[in-house]
Design a protein that fits this description.
This protein is an alpha+beta fold and about 400 residues long. It has one domain. It has a ten-stranded antiparallel barrel with strand order 5-6-7-8-11-12-13-15-16-17. It has a four-stranded antiparallel sheet with strand order 9-10-18-19. It has eight helices and 19 strands. The longest helix is centred in the last third of the chain and has 27 residues.
Length: about 400
C-alpha cells in the first residue's frame, strides 16, 4: 500500500515562514509569484524563531559534532505542507530502464526519462570546510517542495525536463489551500554535445568546445525564467541495477539560498551525481565556494555538500494543476526558450543584468504569464514580442 506522510517531517528548527502563505489571504498576481518563490528560494522570506530542538542522540548526523547543536540548527523554508502519499512500488520508467538488450544510448535515454514524475523533494546543504584561520561554519540549510517534472521534448539524443512547483499549504487550523503553481527550473540533456555553454562569473556566460564528448551527456540547467544557469557534461553508468550520472567539475552562479546572505565568493565550482531509485532519484553535489577576481585569480573560500531527494508521490495531484497552468502559459514559455536558444547558439559571450529600471527579469516574465492565465484567448504575436523584448532588455553582449 502507498504510504501517507505529512511533509515536511516534524522538527522544531529555525524556519522562514511566509506571511502570505500562512493566512492564504488574497494576493496580487506578482505577489503570489514572489511568495511561492520565497518558499522554494527562502531569500525572499522573513525568519521567525521557534523553540530549539532536542539535541540529536550521539551528536549531529553528518555535521559539526563539536559545535553546540543549538548553533547549527538548519535555516531555510519548512512551512507545513499537505500530507503526501508515497509510491512504494517501482515506477514504470524504472522497470523499462532494466529491460534486457538495451544499447548504451537507449539505456541512458531511459534513465533521463525516469527523472520525470511527481515528487516530494528535500534540499539539504551542509558547509563541509572553510579556509579562513578563524573559520566558523554557516548553519546548514534545509527546504522542501512538492514538484512536478514533465518531459517537454524527447528525442533519442535530446530530452528537456520542466520542473514546476505545485504546492499545497496548511493554515494554522490545518486547512489545505488550493494548489499554488510556480514554474521552477529546467534541465536539457544532450547526447555527445560539441560545445558547452558555461558560467564564467558575475552573471556572465560563454561557449566552449567539448574535448571528449564520446559516450557522454551534457545537462544544461536553466533558471526559473529560462535564462541560463550552468551546463555540465558527464557519463551515465549502469552497474548492478544502479543507474547514475557523474558530471565533470563545472562552475555555476550562487544559488539564491547563498547569494542573499553571502558576499565573500561569486562562483560555485563543483561536480554532481544523479542516482535513480525504484521510486525516484537522488541528486548529490560537492561544491567549492570560489572568489574569482577580474584578472581571473581564484581564491577558495570553503566548500559544501548537498543532497536533494526526489521521492515519487501519488497524492496530492501535481500533474493536473501543472497541465492547467501550462495550457495557458506553455506557448509563451516556448517563445522564451526559443529566444534564449537563439542567443546561446550565437556563441557570443554575454551577461545578464540583475535588474533594469527596478525590475528583475523573472518578475517581468512571471507577471506576463499570470496575465495569460486570465486571458480569454492567446495572442501568439504578442507572446513572441514580449519574450524577445524582455530578454533583450536584460541582455548585455
Amino acid at each position: 500500500m502507498p504510504e501517507s506522510r505529512a511533509f515536511p517531517w516534524e522538527s522544531a528548527v529555525g524556519i522562514h515562514k511566509l506571511e502570505t502563505c500562512a493566512t492564504f489571504a488574497p494576493m496580487k498576481p506578482l505577489l503570489s509569484v514572489l511568495s511561492l518563490l520565497a518558499l522554494a528560494l527562502p531569500a525572499f522570506a522573513k525568519e521567525t524563531k521557534k523553540p530549539a530542538p532536542a539535541p540529536p542522540a550521539g551528536g549531529q548526523a553528518f555535521g559539526w559534532p563539536f559545535i553546540e547543536w543549538q548553533k547549527m540548527t538548519p535555516r531555510g523554508g519548512t512551512t507545513q505542507g499537505a500530507e503526501v502519499t508515497l509510491l512504494t512500488t517501482p515506477k514504470e520508467a524504472w522497470t523499462k530502464l532494466h529491460e534486457p538488450g538495451l544499447s548504451k544510448i537507449e539505456q541512458d535515454h531511459r534513465a533521463i526519462l525516469a527523472l520525470a514524475g511527481n515528487y516530494r523533494v528535500s534540499f539539504d546543504f551542509t558547509e563541509s570546510f572553510g579556509m579562513a584561520p578563524d573559520y566558523k561554519p554557516a548553519r546548514p540549510y534545509f527546504s522542501w517542495a512538492t514538484e512536478n517534472v514533465t518531459v517537454l521534448e524527447d528525442r533519442s539524443d535530446f530530452v528537456s525536463l520542466q520542473h514546476t512547483l505545485v504546492m499545497y499549504f496548511k493554515d494554522e487550523k490545518g486547512k489545505s489551500s488550493p494548489p499554488m503553481v510556480q514554474k521552477h527550473w529546467r534541465e536539457d540533456w544532450t547526447w555527445q554535445p560539441k560545445v558547452l555553454h558555461i558560467y564564467v562569473k558575475d552573471s556572465s556566460w560563454k561557449t566552449v568546445a567539448v574535448v571528449a564528448p564520446e559516450g557522454r551527456w551534457s545537462q544544461a540547467v536553466y533558471q526559473v525564467d529560462d535564462s541560463p544557469r550552468y551546463e555540465l557534461i558527464g557519463a551515465w553508468t549502469h552497474d548492478g541495477g544502479a543507474s547514475s550520472w557523474h558530471s565533470d567539475v563545472g562552475a555555476r552562479p550562487l544559488p539564491r539560498r547563498e547569494f542573499s546572505v553571502r558576499s565573500d565568493y561569486n562562483v560555485l565550482d563543483g561536480f554532481e551525481e544523479l542516482i535513480l531509485t525504484p521510486t525516484g532519484w537522488v541528486h548529490t553535489q560537492n561544491n567549492r565556494k570560489m572568489l574569482v577576481a577580474k584578472d581571473g585569480t581564484r581564491t577558495c573560500v570553503g566548500g559544501e555538500i548537498g543532497i536533494n531527494r526526489y521521492e515519487e508521490i501519488t497524492a496530492p495531484d501535481l500533474a493536473g494543476p501543472f497541465k492547467a497552468y501550462w495550457a495557458k502559459t506553455g506557448d509563451y514559455w516556448k517563445d522564451v526558450r526559443t529566444t534564449w536558444d537563439e542567443t546561446i547558439k550565437s556563441n557570443v559571450p554575454f551577461s545578464v543584468k540583475e535588474e533594469d529600471g527596478g525590475e528583475k527579469q523573472f518578475a517581468v516574465h512571471f507577471g506576463y504569464a499570470e496575465e495569460l492565465e486570465k486571458a480569454d484567448k492567446p495572442d501568439p504575436e504578442a507572446n513572441l514580442r514580449h519574450a524577445r523584448e524582455t530578454i533583450a532588455r536584460f541582455l548585455v553582449k
